[in-house]
Design goal:
Length: about 450
């Protein structure tokens, strides 16, 4: 009897628990989801949006259409900024009202919706939708808005309102070049009578046809290309086509052309104004302004791209290194992936990243162009000697610093020898030599 009673209670409990779960948990969750869905002003999939139109007071309407990519067709024909348009579409898809103000307002003037500050319409899956943004609410950081039902007034957050408040500049592409860095096969840089031409061979190495004996450093050319592809217009002057000569664009002060197997793109750079330079070309119509510091980053001569690396090596090649700093000698040896001081040296082993940082710095050391200084033989009072070794103590390279350049010195001298070759003296930038000396000191005494 007790067992039967317990079974009945268990059945009742399970039934009650099921009832509670279904109506209180599942039902409540469904109710919340329905409420959230009802707050959405549009039930659209952003991938189905194929046309946009933005109209604001005292500004020309902006029309965009999608055909593989977003294209602005009015008030100017130019590519759209894919990221900016995608951000706007995401905002449309996720747009929610904070609360309803009036379901069917008779007068839209108090809300600023009779003449909305922005009227955005879009085509999604064949249907036309509308979003109108009105005045800022008196209380709270919110704005009045209405969607397809013009008289249905709601409130949206100020952050949401800002996501739709896009100008022509915001929505148009600002990229001058559309090619990819690894596609470029030819670069031409013309400064009046000075011309620099680079071509890339099948082995991906860059060469100057006019000076094939000069070794070009690939990373310098790639860095140059990276700067070009990051270049953006900071301002547009679409009505200056008749003033190209006054802007220094006809003829251009600088003419830059990059070529791929499929296309050629050209950028013209003209006169400077304040912190900007007039620019024209590439994929952008009209005249634009770019940052003036671009001119300082462009190579002036072939020498700026020349490979003047002292020692080319892979970090894994280095198995040991010896140091002489201020007359004291030290040796580091690599044990698998760990660097350790030579047995008997009473000091804490360095962190791997410090040794790797020093080696990376040595990889980047380059001598300066121009005349070489008079050869200096090693002196007993040298400030620093650094020797790199491969397997079986095969010498890779030796760096000798006789004097640390002062903070005001733009260059200093370094003795360098590759392998067992005789040392040669080079001019290096003062900054790189000071950094080398400091990194070695930090390696020996990280707390200093």
């Amino acid at each position: 009897m007790r067992t039967r009673t317990a079974l009945i209670y268990l059945i009742l409990f399970l039934a009650f628990a099921g009832y509670f779960y279904y109506f209180e948990v599942v039902g409540r969750r469904a109710h919340i989801e329905q409420e959230e869905a009802a707050r959405h002003l549009f039930q659209v999939d952003k991938t189905k949006i194929t046309a946009l139109q933005l109209e604001r007071a005292e500004a020309a309407p902006i029309y965009l259409t999608k055909n593989g990519h977003w294209q602005i067709i009015e008030p100017i024909n130019t590519k759209g900024d894919e990221f900016a348009v995608a951000s706007l579409l995401t905002a449309l898809e996720s747009l929610k009202m904070e609360r309803e103000v009036e379901a069917a307002a008779q007068d839209l003037q108090p809300y600023g919706l009779d003449q909305p500050m922005l009227h955005l319409s879009f085509l999604a899956d064949g249907s036309r939708h509308h979003l109108r943004l009105g005045a800022k609410a008196v209380v709270g950081n919110q704005y009045y808005a209405s969607s397809d039902q013009e008289n249905h007034v709601v409130l949206i957050t100020a952050a949401t309102q800002q996501s739709f408040d896009k100008s022509l500049y915001d929505l148009r592409s600002k990229e001058f070049f559309t090619a990819h860095s690894d596609e470029v096969e030819r670069i031409e840089l013309n400064r009046g009578k000075n011309e620099l031409i680079l071509t890339r061979a099948e082995n991906k190495l860059w060469r100057a046809p006019a000076a094939v004996e000069v070794k070009i450093k690939t990373s310098k050319v790639e860095r140059f290309l990276s700067q070009l592809f990051r270049l953006r217009a900071k301002r547009f002057l679409d009505n200056e086509e008749d003033n190209l000569a006054l802007l220094g664009l006809a003829p251009a002060k600088i003419r830059l052309t990059i070529s791929t197997p499929k296309k050629t793109e050209t950028l013209l750079l003209g006169n400077s104004k304040d912190e900007s330079v007039y620019a024209k070309g590439g994929e952008l119509p009209g005249v634009a302004m770019v940052e003036k510091n671009l001119l300082a980053e462009l190579p002036q001569t072939l020498s700026d791209l020349e490979d003047r690396t002292l020692l080319v090596l892979e970090l894994d090649q280095v198995k040991a290194l010896s140091l002489i700093l201020a007359g004291e000698a030290f040796r580091l040896e690599k044990n698998e992936d760990t660097w350790n001081w030579r047995e008997g040296e009473d000091r804490k082993n360095p962190e791997n990243w410090r040794v790797n940082s020093l080696l990376w710095g040595l990889q980047e050391l380059e001598y300066l162009p121009g005349d070489f200084p008079r050869v200096h033989s090693s002196a007993k009072n040298k400030v620093l000697e650094l020797v790199l070794y491969a397997e079986n103590d095969e010498k890779l390279g030796t760096f000798e610093l006789l004097e640390v350049p002062s903070e005001k010195s733009e260059r200093g001298m370094l003795n360098f020898s590759k392998g067992s070759e005789s040392a040669r003296t080079y001019w290096l930038s003062g900054e790189s030599l000071r950094e080398l000396h400091q990194n070695v000191k930090k390696l020996l005494n990280p707390e200093a």
